[in-house]
Design a protein that fits this description.
alpha+beta; 3-stranded antiparallel sheet; 6 helices; 18 strands; disordered N terminus
Length: 338
């Protein structure tokens, strides 16, 4: 397992359990009446709820799902919440199981584990995120699994600019869907809907802050079509962003690549060594391209800002590995110093 410098110990499972709900949220949705079991579906989402306070960088999520058939037991039997200990705080408020109208609280420190899972390690990609995993005992068909949590914090690479998307459909039926986004004071959140999602939408002013709300009920499950073109939106969603244009996005992204100090002697020596004896610029450029492709191996360390900000060319050259943006910036630096 590959750890980045300065990584602290994983938080204790019990420290993530915070039964008190945040004061800024509105009371969570109550469970709606449950229709008859539908064996055609493995799960039924009875509640999909999300509340976001942009100023606090906090997101509250609340879900309730019913196990419709034996095939749904696998998915409902364990709940995993991912977070980054470098810039996020996870507070798990409750995890309960309803059976025949009777509630059973299941969130205790002995059923909760904090794991580091690198799902993309076989692709040489490491992100360092943690997973708070709760494995439920004695889950049966007809049970309702309900849980809620708050995640606070954001990757500093975004420089405080908010953006997210809200799902408008799932692969299971949804009985009640509710989204609430409270913009930061004096800041505008731009909204765009993609796909066939037409919820009730309204805005309101809340003491200098704009509140956005979406609500929908009785949404059918999406049955995706295989081999659909990439531009086909099969799972509709609402997109939100404080960026007002793609120009602003481009300016933000350009700044991530702007830090380029004077080239080191090592970098200049590498340019000279790789291009020695070659007469044309084309031949020199191809030689540098082959060097970056073949001698700088692919390895992605996506920790904090390195998810989007490349490592400096000199560092990539010294360690002889990097991801797509690291290797691209290194190649640009080498070509510039021909």
């Amino acid at each position: 397992m590959l750890l980045h410098a300065g990584a602290a110990e994983n938080p204790a499972p019990g420290s993530l359990i915070v039964p008190e709900l945040p004061a800024w949220i509105e009371p969570p949705l109550a469970l709606p009446p449950a229709p008859a079991l539908a064996a055609s579906s493995s799960l039924r989402m009875m509640i999909v709820e999300e509340q976001i306070d942009v100023e606090r960088k906090a997101t509250f999520r609340h879900y309730a799902m019913r196990v419709e058939s034996e095939s749904g037991l696998q998915s409902a039997g364990q709940i995993a919440l991912n977070f980054s200990k470098d810039y996020e705080i996870l507070q798990w408020h409750f995890l309960r199981v309803w059976r025949a109208g009777v509630k059973s609280e299941r969130l205790t420190s002995d059923v909760l584990q904090v794991l580091r899972q690198e799902e993309d390690a076989d692709r040489f990609m490491y992100h360092g995120r943690l997973s708070a995993l709760a494995v439920l005992r004695d889950i049966r068909v007809g049970d309702i699994v309900e849980y809620a949590y708050t995640r606070t914090g954001e990757n500093p690479v975004f420089a405080g600019r908010f953006s997210t998307r809200l799902s408008g459909a799932f692969g299971t039926p949804v009985d009640r869907m509710s989204y609430r986004v409270l913009a930061a004071p004096g800041r505008t959140v731009h909204v765009a809907s993609l796909g066939d999602f037409k919820p009730a939408y309204q805005t309101a002013n809340r003491v200098g802050r704009v509140e956005h709300r979406w609500a929908a009920e009785n949404l059918a499950a999406v049955r995706p079509i295989g081999d659909a073109p990439s531009w086909e939106v099969q799972y509709p969603f609402v997109q939100l962003s404080e960026f007002s244009s793609w120009r602003e996005v481009a300016d933000w992204g350009r700044d991530l690549f702007a830090a380029s100090p004077m080239p080191s002697a090592e970098l200049l020596e590498r340019v000279a060594a790789v291009t020695r004896g070659l007469a044309s610029d084309e031949a020199k450029a191809n030689a540098l391209l082959r060097f970056v492709q073949d001698e700088v191996r692919y390895l992605a360390l996506h920790f904090v800002e390195s998810t989007h900000r490349p490592y400096l060319p000199d560092e990539v050259l010294r360690r002889r590995f990097g991801d797509c943006k690291d290797k691209s910036l290194l190649l640009v630096a080498l070509l510039r110093h021909l």
